[in-house]
Structure formats: structure tokens, C-alpha cells
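hey so i finally got around to running the thing on that chain from the lab meeting. sorry it took forever, my laptop kept dying and i had to restart like 3 times. anyway pasting the input first so we r on the same page abt which one it is
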Amino acid sequence: MTKKITAIFLALCMAISVLPMTIQAASKPDIKVGDYVKMGAYNNASILWRCVSIDNNGPLMLADKIVDTLAYDAKTNDNSNSKSHSRSYKRDDYGSNYWKDSNMRSWLNSTAAEGKVDWLCGNPPKDGYVSGVGAYNEKAGFLNAFSKSEIAAMKTVTQRSLVSHPEYNKGIVDGDANSDLLYYTDISEAVANYDSSYFETTTEKVFLLDVKQANAVWKNLKGYYVAYNNDGMAWPYWLRTPVTDCNHDMRYISSSGQVGRYAPWYSDLGVRPAFYLDSEYFVTTSGSGSQSSPYIGSAPNKQEDDYTISEPAEDANPDWNVSTEQSIQLTLGPWYSNDGKYSNPTIPVYTIQKTRSDTENMVVVVCGEGYTKSQQGKFINDVKRLWQDAMKYEPYRSYADRFNVYALCTASESTFDNGGSTFFDVIVDKYNSPVISNNLHGSQWKNHIFERCIGPEFIEKIHDAHIKKKCDPNTIPSGSEYEPYYYVHDYIAQFAMVVNTESDFGGAYNNREYGFHYFISPSDSYRASKTFAHEFGHGLLGLGDEYSNGYLLDDKELKSLNLSSVEDPEKIKWRQLLGFRNTYTCRNAYGSKMLVSSYECIMRDTNYQFCEVCRLQGFKRMSQLVKDVDLYVATPEVKEYTGAYSKPSDFTDLETSSYYNYTYNRNDRLLSGNSKSRFNTNMNGKKIELRTVIQNISDKNARQLKFKMWIKHSDGSVATDSSGNPLQTVQTFDIPVWNDKANFWPLGALDHIKSDFNSGLKSCSLIYQIPSDAQLKSGDTVAFQVLDENGNVLADDNTETQRYTTVSIQYKFEDGSEIPNTAGGTFTVPYGTKLDLTPAKTLYDYEFIKVDGLNKPIVSDGTVVTYYYKNKNEEHTHNLTLVAAKAATCTTAGNSAYYTCDGCDKWFADATGSVEITDKTSVKIPAPGHTAGTEWKSDDTNHWHECSRCHDKKDEAAHDYGSDNVCDTCGYYKTVPHTHNLTLVAAKAATCTTAGNSAYYTCDGCDKWFADATGSVEITDKTSVKIPAPGHTAGTEWKSDDTNHWHECSRCHDKKDEAAHDYGSDNVCDTCGYYKTVPHTHNLTLVAAKAATCTEGGKEAYYKCEGCGKFYEDVLGTKEITDLASWGNIAKIAHTTKQTVTKATPTANGKIVNYCSVCKKTLSTTVIPKASSIKLKVTSLTYNGKVRTPKVIVKDRTGKTLVKNTDYTVSYAKGRKYVGKYAVKITFKGKYSGTKTLYFTIKPKATSISSLKAGSKKFTVKWKKQATQTTGYQVQYSASSKFSKAKTVTVGKNTTVSKKISKLSGKKKYYVRVRTYKTVKINGKSIRIYSGWSKAKTVTTKK
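ok and heres what got predicted. didnt touch it at all, straight out
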């Protein structure tokens, strides 16, 4: 037996050895754009991919066709547990447009089996949550049928994915992007502002294209970005880019290539997956990369763990997730913590932004409410985000580098929204105002915790002033409860509290005399950043709410200078700003007595910036808190000056409509900022006005500023009038001293003191009339500058559209490691700014060493300035750089060699740094100056004294010659050689009576004559050029006219022997024979006028002499017509047009013929293209119990879409909510005629196989019952997965849900699928209408 088996084995080996070998060795291809790869499978079919782009991630592979039609994301009402859905109620009805936890991303990156996909948002795409029958919660993950080595060939990448406003308002955003992606439908424009659009980074293998990747496909492969299904039909497909200013809609590529928008829960859009190929590991076993022979391969040698994506788990660590190395410690007695929960809190401190010493900048202390210890990292990030956003508002932006910001991690036991214990005991009252409760948990003074507890401890331990606490906050003295803490307000400009909540509220408390100086703002509400900026306006700038009329005070008592109750425009506080930008005077609400300066202000509506009055107030307020600010120039504007809104009486109507009338009028006249281009060539003779307001910040020195305005051509040159005078004007304005500065919220003030809002303020208006003869050109604009006394530009015509960029401050040790308890903040600065910062000498317990990134223009987002510090007791290692010796010149100083340390900036005499140079002037070698002698040097032009050291010229001047050609100063003799100055004397012919000459040249210096222009051939015999006069040569023949006769010179034609005729009786001159003509009398005949027709011109009437044949205009013959052909012609008259229309039909073109009814000539023919394409958008629908009305699309043969109810009407058959075949009749109208009937089918709902049970040479299939609009079922089975040679069995009852199939082969695998059908009558005949087949399942029969 053993020998027999051995023999068989040997025989098999021999047989195998002679078979032809076709296995190709694995190779690594060079993937290029356009190459095809076949890899993976879906629905039992291989997937073809194409390389559509190559970028930093490698080759981008895109599915050649859509793989399925599925919803992007399910809609849900389960907001509390659905992650991104909880950020927008609209997602309840339409699904989420957030890529990161979408159903689509979950499914594309899943290898799970059927029904096992991990849906990241917690909301599976099940029936009722996605449209139609598109549920795919029971599907296997897209990667389920890929091999492990195929999945390994897909690179796991981290890439940009744009987010919409429910995300970026919550702070789910990376980088410094700051705008929504503009909605353009053309693929070429769809990425217009992509790089500045809100985004986050996501990590995945498989994804949908975003608009930038789709744009790259269009650029590289043109129309390939349009997708097709397996039937070759163009089909729309999802992108992963949301409509970013919308709660829910997604972008997609339509079948015509446009970028559209669609709700995520719809199931009829295609899925066209993409991935980045890992070309380092990808190897192929066959194929050339063409469509017909794609590369087939994988990454078998890449070691990779099983792949899936998931959201990061919630941090369950109850302890700190931030450093506690730098902290303050409080001891809070029962006045602040009666329940004892927060009696001895440790409060970690983080430096968010510290650009200068705390004693030079405004210090802002931000605390958290409702952040647990393990959520403090979120708190730090929330503060950074809110602060960065707030610094985009003026006037904060102009002072952005003058703030030092600290985050204090005041940890709570519970999150705010959970209703548990929080650090500050903030409650939200019935008016939706947040307050620190003064009696919650029996803590009666907790609302004084900032100025009494946190502030003193912070100033002593963290603040650069290091002022020791003056008293115990737990001892409440009587009579002076607040005064011991007034000093806190001198060192801390603002306390702020960020509440960890999505709820939207805000409140500010600003009474320093009684210890309140803080505001409360949410972290994650939909307008959190705006609320933070608004409340900061209360706390820091002293502004009041412009939306509330809850209090009315006499104007003299108003503390918020942006509010008033004085209606007289001559007395209103902002009278100097009236008519500047959007400054008006209007009621803040209908019927209110409270007045505001604008409806467009963040203090009234957080959708706006600060108005001009609030900005001015803010600049004045912050200038009191920092040094080195001496002037505020509001951003100027230029308008056409018409006299409208130019005097106080124009601002007496206080109602809403009048405010908007003013703003409309202003906008129509605006010629600056984004309205520069409105200036045009019709401005001749019109007036323009340059307007701004300027506040002197100094209470000692008046200022004088110069305003320049001119008309600028597009090439930068100045426009002129017709005489060449430039179109420009200049005016100087005197800015008075701010005498009242001491009364306006000075540093340390506990309350606002009555101040004059107009002190130091100047409204500046420069008006210029453009001359009527101005030479204006297309593209001209109004340019201007505001200059200080030294010529420095304070503002110009580019100020309003100034670009801004971001700067971040980092804090590091010398080795590059980050200093604990720092979280570098980001703020906004004008593009091109050179930051001039003086870093604080200390940060916590560290000593400043150096700074990188200062004193160079900031020209890109993300610029980082790094402050380096060291431990105070840490020895510094010098990093020395040689400054080479440099010799002094006569005019520039030199230096001896020395060394500088780029860490501490000290100078040393040696390379080891042991000999410090404390007197830095000691290495300087002064410039000795020139050593010029008394001897004059000279050339042909000048004379000078020469420096004996550097040979520079001194006292250089031009020669001063006397009459002897000798310089009176230096004695230089000027040689003056004679140069002929020749003038041509032109040749002149001799006449009968005067002589002529040939051409020659004369010198007006020496009077010589020359034969040539160079003066080389002198004419010594000047008579040789003369030509004598020959005299007359008169003949004997008489010449004559009507009066005289004479003899004529044949050369010059002069007359000789001239005399009058001597006529005889025969009218003939007896001397010369001249005959005298007797005058002719005309015999005129009228030639009648001829009227013009549309085919022939006419002629006016005229007269003809029958005797002489001449033509005349008048009957007297006084106006002769010399050119009859061109005289009196009357042009042909116009055709009398009529029209006939032959209507187009679906089979034939129509036409419109215009013809003349008089001459019958055809004037024009316009073809009406036939309506050659008449289709239904869908011809097959699935029963859903609703009336179905598929859209009709009609196009003419040119591709133009015809208009319903204009070109055609549509009527639908009745009863089209049930399974059946239905007619749609299109009746043409207007320029079209005829009818067309189309048909669509409503199929019954499909079913699915619920079980397959194998038996002996048989199996039993069961399916889900589908009784509604269903007659029965069909079961199809085959041994082939492609159902070739399949057999079909019909089940005639809709209540039967199983079928036994017998007489089969034993132990054989069968593929089985089921569909429903409905029997309907159409035109008297019974036909079956089938649903689609269910997903095939397999069963193997038993023996």
C-alpha cells in the first residue's frame, strides 16, 4: 500500500513538472497619474482604481466607478447620545455633515462582518433613519472582502477635512483657518478659499474625496472626476466636504460635473471611495497599469495590525491632566466654601500669553467653571481659542500684544451641565443671566472670590509685581470690607470665567468699589467666541448693553459712553462722529428713550464688530492701562461728497428706517476700502471727502497731522487735468490736547468719573472737487495718507483692507523643551508687522535669556516667537560668535575683534568668554574724518581738494572762467578749439529775371563756405556757386481771355504787350481774333421727384435746361447741380416685417421666418431645434405608499433644457402610488407642438433572505414577508455566483414566505436570491412587475 501511494505521488510530481508556468514574479511599479490598479472586492466584484493625483501622501487612488448608492449619514432624534448630532437640531431631520463620526467614514474603514460595523456616532444607518430602502446597518464593512495584504497597501493618512459651523463654533478646528468655504458650483472655482477654511485633521485609510482632491482630478484627468455606475450611466457621488455655513448639507459631484449640495440622509447618491497607495510596499503580480491590464497587487511584506478606526475613549482619569508645578493655593473659610468642598483648592496656573512684564501689560486672569481635573486640558484649549477669536475684534486687535493672559485651573467636582458641585457655584437665573450665587451651599461671599482670594494670591505668587497679601480674606471686617482689595484692580485688568457648557449665556459684573470686576462666558455655545468678546467689552472697556432699555439715566450720569438719552444732535456725546462710517443716532428699540450710535455693534448684536463709538471708547480705555500709546486714528473712509448727512440737522430722525436710509446712502457714495473700484470716469466736477476722527491720547502735547488725497491711475501715477496739474489736495489738522484724560477711567479708578467725551477728539474732513477737465481713466482710485509731524504714515487707502496674520508665543528652555505650565497663545497682527516686544525678565521662577522671531516682518500665518528662559541658579553656557575686526574709514567707524553671546548678549575679548567687555564703546574705532590738502585738483569741468587718505573729493565746484578762459579759483585753462557750425544754403534755380545758386554750406563762426556738410571742401571762389538770370523768351502767338490779349514768356509765362480787345461788329478782336460769346438764357424743364421703396432709392425733383443740358435745383436756374448722381438721393425705406412660425416637434425642427410684406423678401430664418431628448429623471421607483411624480427633463437637440409650463406641460396618470406602470404625457406649447408619452414603473418593495437551510439534495429558503402591493415571490438559484444557468421558481401567494427546492445535486454549493412581484393589468393584459433581487446568499446541500 505504501509503495502504491509513493508511486502516485511521484507521478503527480512528474505531471506538475511538465505544466507551463505562468506565475509572474512580484515587482514594484512606478505608479503615475492615470495608471489603473485592481484591488479588493465589493458585492462579489473586483474593484478597479485609478491614480488621479500624486501629492505629499503619495498616489491618490479613486474608484473607477461608484461602488454603491448609500446615505452619507443617518438622521436621528437621539441627540443626547449621538455626538455630532447633538450640536445641531437640524441633524435630527437631515443627518450630520461632520465627516469624522459619519456613517460613511465608519463603513468605509470597517472590516467587520454583516451587522457588526462600529458606527462612530452611535446612530446606525437603519430603516427610517436613511431614505427609501437604503439602510446599510446590516451590511458588512466596505473592507470586509479585502485581504489583509490589500488593506496594508492602503496607507493610513492624516489629512485635512473641512468642518461646518456646529463644529468650529465648538472649537473642533485645527490651525488658523478663519472662514467658511465659499459655495461655488463650478469645479474650477470650488476651492477658491480652501486653504483658509475651517478644518480639522482626520486619520483614515479609505475616504471620500474632498473638493480640493476632486479639483485635482479635474486638473489632471479632466472629465474623469465625473462618475459612472456599472451600467455606464453618469451618476452623482458624495464628497466628504460639508457646506460649511450649514448645519447639515454635504457637497457632491453631480452627473453633469457641477458641485451641488444634498442632505446626508438621502440614499440615492453614489459612493466613490478613495485611498492613498503605499507605494513603498505595494508590489504587483501582473498587469501593465492600463485600463485593460491594470496592476494587480498588494503589500504582502508590510507588517500592520488589524485596521479599524474609532473615536478616542473618554478620559476616565479623575486626576489632573495638566501640570500642577506652577500653582496657587487658597484657603477658603465658610464665607466662601461653607460645605468645605473647595476649602483648600490647588489651582494650577498656565501662561497663555505673556509678551512683556505684567507691570507693563494689561493682565487678564481666566478661570474655569464646571471643568473637572481631567478636563483641564480642554479648559486650556478653550481659553486659547476664545482669546484668539476675541483678538480679531477691534479695538482688542490693535492692543493684542499688550495683554498678558493667564488660565487658572479652578477644578470642579462635576461638569456644569450635569448639575453637580462646581467651583464657583454659578447658577443661571430666569433671565438667562449667569451669576455666582452668594448663598448657594451657605457661602455668602463667594461672589467676591476673585478680588479677595484669587487676585491677592495670584499677585503675590505669579504676577511680576509680587505684592504680598495685605489681609486675610476669611476675616470679614466691618465698615471696610472692600477697600483693602482695591489694589488688586491696579494689577489685574480683568477677571474672566469660562463655563464648560454648550448653553448660550453671558454676564459681566463691573463695580470695583464693591469688589466686582469679572465676566462669565460659555465655552462651547454656538456663539461662545462672540459672547466672550461682548462681555469683555463690558468688563474692560466700560461699555453698556445696546440692546436693553431696562435703565434710563440722565446723560450726565451715564457710565456707558456708548449710550445716551440726549436726542439733540448738537449735544449728543458722539456728535463729532455723526456721519462717519455707520455712526448715526437711533433708538435702540422701538419707542425706547435710550439712544445708540449704530445698529451694527457687538454690544447690541454679536453678529457684528464693535461700532466706531465703542472702538473709540475702547482705545481710550486701554490707553490708560498701558504706556507708549499717543494717538488714535480711526480707519479713514472716502465718500462722494453731496452734502447729505453733513450737518447735525441731518441726524434728528431717530427711528430705525432713518438709520438704514443713512447707511444705504453712505454705501452708495463710498469710494474706499472694498468700494475703491466704484470710482469711475464720470467723477469730473464732483466732490469727494476724506473723513476720519482722531483722538489725542496725550494730555500734554497737541498734535498736527497732514492729510493728503489724490486721484491715482492703475499704474500708480497721479491723474492730472488737461493742463497737466496733478489732481491732489493737502490739508493740516490741529489735534487738541486730551485735557480731561485724568477723569476718563484712569488706572486704579474704582468707577467712571464724569468726563468730556470730546476732549482731545477731532473730526477731520478733507473735501476736494475734481476739476471738470480731469483726465480720468478706467481703473482710477482715490488714494490718501494721514501723516504725523515727522512724515510717518498713520493710515492710508490700504488700511481698511489691511491683511492680518497670526503670531504665537512659545516659552522654552535653552534645550528647546517647553516650560511647564505654559500654553503659547495666538493673536492677530497686521501683515508685515515687525513685533517690538520686551520679554519679561522672569517667568515663574525662570530667568529670561533670549528671544527668537522678533524684529522681522510677520508675513505668514503660524509665525512663532520663542522666549527662552533658564533656572535662576542654572549656570549659563556662552555661545560665542566672533565679530571680526574692521578698520575705520574717514566716514565710518571700525572696531577691534570681539565675541558676542547670542544667549545673554554679553561681549567678550576672548573666545573662551572669560574676559567680559563691560564698556562696549571700548572696541569701537572712531572715524578720523577726511585730511584734505590745500592743492586744487581739477578736470575739464570741476576743481576740488582731495583727501590724502581715502581720496574722496571735498569743496568740489565747477570752474569759474574769466574772459581769458582761465578759472579764477584754480587757474585751470580752458582750450577752445573752433568747430564749424554749418548751415545749408539750399540750391535755388535761376528765373528769367533773378539769379540762382547751387547748394553750399556756410559757417556762422568763421564765415567760410563749404561744398559738403562736414566742412572738409572749402569754396574759395564764392561766385562759382552763382547761376545768372537768362531773361524772357516771348513768342509771337497771342494769348487771350474775355478781356485782354498778350504775348507769353515760354520760360516763366510772364505777360508782354498786354492790351484790351478791339472788337469789330462781328464780335471778333481785330488784333488777336478772339470771339466774344453772347450770354445763354436757360430753358428749364421740371424733372418730377421719385419716391423711395424698400427695394430702390428715390430722387428729389430738379430742373434741366433743354438748351445747354445743365441741371438746377431751382426754377430760376441759380443753383446749378454739378453732380446729379450724388445729389438729392433718397435712401431706400425699411422693410415691413411680418413673421411666420413653424413650431418644432419632437421629430422635426421648427423655424421662425421674418419677411417683408411689401417686397416678399425673406429677411431672416431662425431654427427652433427639435425637442429631441424627452426623458424621465427616473423610470423605475420602489413602492413607498406615496404618490410618485418623477421629474420630466426635456432638452432640444443643442442640449438646452426646455422650461416646464413655458415650452411644455406635463400630466400624470392617476393612481400612481401603487405598483404598476404609469403614463406621463408631455404636451408641447409655445414654440413647440406635439405630444410625447413616457412611462415609469413602480416596483414592489424588495425582500431579503432570512434563512437558508440545507437538506439532502435540497434546501429550504425563507424570506421576509412583503405583503403590501405584492402578489408573490420568485426564488432564483444557481451554482454560479453570477447566476448563469439559473433556475427560477415562482411562489404565487404573498403570504407564503418559504420554499423547498429539491431534486438538486448533493454536497453542492448554490447561490440563492429572492424577489417580489406584483401582477397588474396594463391595457387589458396581466403582467408582472418585479422588485430587485435580494442580496445573494449561499447554501451547500447535503449528500
